[in-house]
Design goal:
alpha/beta; nicotinate phosphoribosyltransferase; TIM Barrel; 2 domains; 6-stranded antiparallel beta sheet; 6-stranded parallel beta sheet; disordered N terminus; disordered C terminus; metal ion binding; phosphoprotein; Nicotinate phosphoribosyltransferase
């Protein structure tokens, strides 16, 4: 199998560890290869090899130190791409040659032969399920294997997790502000940081709770629903209804044909223009806009949604839309609704809703008052919150720049730290307590209370007994003896699962479908106490150790 000309490789040992015995597809982006790394990973690999340490068994944790966007939660994403990288990690001869040229001239041929042979057949990967709500210091991934090989995985794995988790968290925060009843569309392709940023953002915004994307390539790659209609350019490209040459439209059931749909639209406009209940607010509307709406309706009678703010929303856009929608209704079609892309979105949506409801009541058109109103225009968390507080009638929000670029925070800041080698715990010390790593191979658990909310995450040494349901457990903060509490969990969930067993013979967790990851993310947020995930002044979630000091008494925050 190939991705962008690159041969996808898997060893017999790794293939055996995949229960189905199939070759796993490579990363979505063909640029994700063993060379997508920092040079010092290869210089360290050579130094490990030169010292005879390259096969020593090492354990690395990937985690982050602080939640993004001033919040108190993060959503983990990027796992699938990491596993695809690891399943296909193999240097080509051309890549080995390039590494040889890039390293100092003292590099020995034996090391190049070593590079030709390495893969991830002896690497084990344990991870939290993608789409899970996670917190600082808790390992998102634990990689075990020959130290040189796992070291080579550091940079690409960090690259695949950092942005994915950041944008998924950003999407989840937008979803929480908008509420579950609203539809959210990701419209960020044109503003994203390059093609890869755009494709990744579409995928991970979907995981974070968005319903659809405008990105056609992402729709094809990941099966994400697509949404989109037309732009202001389409509206302003028309001059008048006289330009419309093909005017006929068959009824929705095919039983009849309207020979002059334009005339039918004009007749409906005359009817609504003088409705007393609307107070005569509809005067002469922009005829070029009306022509654009009619043309779009003729092209998509089952999916007519109009952008109504090119000229004047209330005095032109909405009445023009209503006339076309009523004409479609005559032929058995139902228009979708309108999109607002500028102005006071709360006020305009409310006024448009009143007009729709009046037409339904006065003209007896069932469902007209429930036309979908979509809003866009550089929306972010703050504007969504402000619109919600003002009161509005928007059903769908299209969000782009602030969402996909993670404008409020540039990076998540995940790190990859050695915590054990040859069964000996290792620690990184620092005067900055937040940068002290937590040594040893760990097991991580989430404890839930009687109301179903998660209470605390705890980390223990690998060989310590796991917490039990109904058992009183002392959780403590290693740097503050006064910060300790007893917890009696009603449910205990082990967080780290084996997603790549290497030669261990353990059963590998299957990678779920994208829709299942999205559903898992939504369920995870529902299991969090509301004060932990609220936008303003959220309560910090507790991450602690148990009382046996099995994780070396290092920092848990």
């Amino acid at each position: 199998m190939q991705a962008g000309g690159r041969i996808l490789f898997i060893t017999m040992e790794a293939r055996a560890s995949q229960n189905a015995g199939r070759v796993m597809d490579g990363p979505t982006n063909p640029m994700v290869t063993p060379l997508l790394t920092d040079l010092y990973q290869f210089t360290m690999a050579y130094a490990y090899w030169k010292a005879g340490k390259h096969n020593e068994r090492a354990v690395f944790d990937l985690y982050f130190r602080k939640n993004p966007f001033g919040g108190e939660f993060t959503v983990f994403a990027g796992l699938e791409e990491c596993i695809k990288l690891i399943a296909n990690f193999k240097l080509t001869e051309e890549e080995v040659s390039f590494i040889h040229k890039s390293l100092p001239g003292s590099c020995e041929e034996g090391f190049l032969n070593y590079l030709r042979e390495i893969d991830c057949s002896d690497v084990e990967v344990y991870a939290i399920s993608e789409g899970t709500v996670v917190f600082p210091k808790v390992p998102l991934l634990r990689l075990e294997g020959p130290v040189a090989v796992v070291q080579l995985l550091e940079t690409p794995v960090l690259n695949l997790v950092n942005f994915a988790s950041l944008v998924t968290t950003n999407a989840a925060r937008h979803r929480l502000v908008a509420g579950q009843s609203k539809m959210l569309f990701e419209f960020g392709l044109r503003r994203a940081q390059g093609p890869d940023g755009a494709i990744g953002a579409s995928k991970y915004c979907y995981i974070g709770g968005f319903d659809a994307t405008s990105n056609v390539a992402a729709g094809r790659l990941f099966g994400i629903p697509l949404r989109g209609t037309h732009s202001h350019a389409f509206v302003s490209s028309f001059m008048s209804p006289d330009e419309i040459l093909e005017r006929s439209l068959c009824s929705s059931d095919g039983s009849s044909t309207c020979e002059d749909f334009v005339t039918l639209v004009h007749s409906w406009f005359s009817k609504i223009q003088w409705l007393k209940s609307l107070g005569g607010i509809f005067g002469e509307t922009n005829q070029s806009e009306l022509a654009a709406f009619i043309s779009y309706a003729l092209a998509f009678p089952n999916n007519f949604l109009a952008l109504v703010d090119t000229y004047d929303v209330i005095r032109s856009g909405v009445p023009n839309f209503c006339a076309v929608a009523l004409a479609l209704s005559d032929l058995g079609y139902r228009a979708v609704g309108i999109r607002l892309d500028s102005g006071d979105l709360a006020y305009l949506s409310s006024e448009a809703r009143k007009i729709f409801q009046t037409i339904e009541k006065e003209l007896g058109v069932p469902g007209f008052g429930k036309m979908i109103i979509t809003a866009s225009n550089d929306l972010n968390e703050e504007t969504l919150d402000a619109i919600r507080k003002q009161g509005h009638e928007v059903d769908c929000f299209g969000i782009g720049t602030y969402l996909v670029t993670c404008y409020a925070q540039a990076a998540l800041g995940c790190v990859f730290k050695l915590v054990e080698i040859n069964n000996q715990p290792r620690i990184k010390l620092s005067e900055d307590v937040s940068k002290v790593s937590i040594p040893c191979k760990k097991r991580c658990y989430r404890l839930y209370g009687k109301e179903g909310y998660s209470l605390v995450d705890i980390m223990t040494g690998e060989n310590e007994p796991c917490p039990k349901v109904g058992e009183r457990i002392l959780c403590r903060h290693p740097f503050s003896e006064s910060k300790r509490a007893y917890v009696v969990p009603k449910r205990v969930e082990e967080l780290l699962k084996c997603y790549w067993p290497g030669k261990s013979g353990k059963v590998r967790e299957e990678l779920p479908a994208l829709k299942d990851i999205r559903d898992h993310c939504i369920k995870q947020l529902e299991q969090m106490r509301p004060d932990h995930i609220r936008r303003l002044n959220p309560t910090p979630y507790k991450v602690q150790s148990n009382d046996s000091n099995g994780v070396g008494g290092a920092s848990l925050t």
